[in-house]
Amino acid sequence: MPESTPYIRHPAKFVPLTAIATGESGSAAVPISNANPLPCAEKPLAAVRALIPGTNVAPGSVVLIDCSIDGKVVLELVDGSQLPLSFSAGVTMLPLAVRSIAEAGTTASFNAWVLD
Hints:
Layout lengths: L20 E2 L7 E2 L16 E4 L10 E8 L1 E7 L4 E6 L2 E5 L3 E5 L6 E7 L1
Antiparallel strand pairs: 1-2, 3-9, 4-7, 4-9, 5-6, 5-8
């Protein structure tokens, strides 16, 4: 007769379609349920700060750019390095810790925010 609660012997290389369980290696598997939700490293974004070219802000987890006229946007990252990127009209979200947008070299028309 099979074990009533299987043990996790090593990390799975795939997730079977029939069941998902969590637990430490060598411990009893715990089925996913409302009482034991799936662990997740992702967290919802809960704060927003406007990015205005030439003005430093506290960097966030991501940068959101709503571009209205195509062009370059020069992002300044936390370490002071600059990343010039081309944007076309539309909304773009990038997982970059941006502290500012450089005025020199930026040609696009846009609104931008850092989120965390």
